[in-house]
Please model this.
Amino acid sequence: MIQSLLIANRGEIACRIIRTARTMGIRTVAVYSDADAKSLHARQADEAVHIGPSPAAESYLVGEKIIAAAKATGAEAVHPGYGFLSENADFAQAVIDAGLVWVGPKPDSIRAMGLKDAAKKLMQDAGVPVTPGYLGADQSVERLSKEADAIGYPLLIKAVAGGGGKGMRKVDTAADFVADLESCRREAKASFGNDQVLLEKWITSPRHIEVQVFGDSHGNVVHLFERDCSLQRRHQKVIEEAPAPGMDAATREAICAAAVRAAKAVDYEGAGTIEFIADASEGLRADRIFFMEMNTRLQVEHPVTEEITGVDLVEWQLRVASGEPLPKRQGELSINGHAIEARLYAEDPAKGFLPSTGRLEYLLFQDEGRIETGVEEGDEISPFYDPMIAKLVASGDTREEANDLLFKMVSSVEIWPVRSNAGFLSRALGDPDFVEANIDTGFIAERLDSLVPPDVAEDHVWKIAAEAALLDVTEADEGLAGFRLNGEPRITVTLSHRGETKTLSSEPAIAGSTTYRDDTRVLVFDYGTTYEFDKSVRDTGTHSAHDGEIIAPMPGKVIAVDVTEGQAVTAGQRLMVLEAMKMEHALTAPFEGTVTQLNVSEGGQVQVEAVLCVVEPAGDEA
Model:
């Protein structure tokens, strides 16, 4: 058995691996960048090694630094987690060549599944059903157009080296094909250095079904059943569950057997996932489920499989990498109950899901279910990496029980001042169609407006804030603790929220919401969404001064300034555009007024929470 393990990753997956390694008596070594110097995974490991600057390209993606850290600390093995270098065959080979144990599949297996077109051909030869389409080497526009006409519209153009939704376009008509092909190729070339594409038939009512497989060095391969990952936003998974709703025994047997054949075709060792796309227009049927790709690593959503099988997949990875046979045979594995996972991100749904960075001054999870996280209260959400805060996992005897618990867990999340998608997740889990398992990959896109919580507090939230503010304001602050409120209306209080001021009487609190208050503010946590109220304003009926401050939500570059000092603006008018984390974010006026202060110019770099400009409400004195 491996005695010491270096984890070539960060965040929640590094903490997850550390937890299992510790129970197995394995010493752990973490690596960290400048941004992660005080991170949870570095604190939890037995030893931690600094590997470079904050950008991943200068730290977590530099294989030489990771191998050097392993050798310097006496680590015997390297676990790549997921993301970063986990599916890099050259890195896997370099680890092996350095005399270290690679906790993952053989480099040749990674290469075999690395390009979508080659992988699909390999799967066809292995008898695994693949989506009808074109995988040919002739990449001329003429040939691709001809093949597209033969497949029929709508269809999908996919970069052969793609992933994460990049280099992918749905084409609805022949008239759109050439323009979409050129766009797809440009994105693929920029993202992966490879502009080759394949064509696939567009699947109606698509569901994303994947099968967890596991192989060892003794020729054994098993599956651990399927997961449904259909709830996605822009091809990124949001909510995953196991087993797949509506999967009958015969279809499960067919798809899982195909997954095992796929793994055996590449002589697979370790944890892997075979991803399928299902045409669910007539329910899940074996003859309408097609191979998409294989992920040659542990998946983000692996906890739901662990919950229904009772298997620790990280432990299996470490045992298989140590040369042991699989701990269980296929006949010893079974499904018990149901599990659902939601990915909690530091992002603001009301602002187009823009990532939210900064210090987690307040972070509270309900003490139920399973929480996989790489942060604690007081930690920083960095702009350099994926903005995941945690994975919330609930299980139960039935899907209904699991969903009820997860809804409760997500709705009870309390985070400030970093924004999160908890309110968005709460609405998705509570949607009647999700409750009834009427889902496909278009679920979120079709309901996006109703799933995004309002950015401005609704009346019931104002009432909750008033009730909290009217508690004895002279009592000593009790700290950051949520509480339930029961009080009859008594006196009035004046509060301000996002440029609006109201004077209210206290009213009984509404179930499902909790609050925190201090000398100047009240925070209301309402089904996962946080609203801030200023209680230090006078009852003037006007806006408080700081409501007009336009604050940078994260470090970035100002790429456009649309106003000048002294200019009159209307509510919602664009003031400037900030580019951050490869995304553009328009900053708008919170109300009608005048720009009294402008602190930036086009091309300037700004830091998080910098005051970019100030808008004074109409009617106020200059």
Observations:
- The longest helix spans residues 174-192.
- The longest strand covers residues 221-233.
- The radius of gyration is 26 Å.
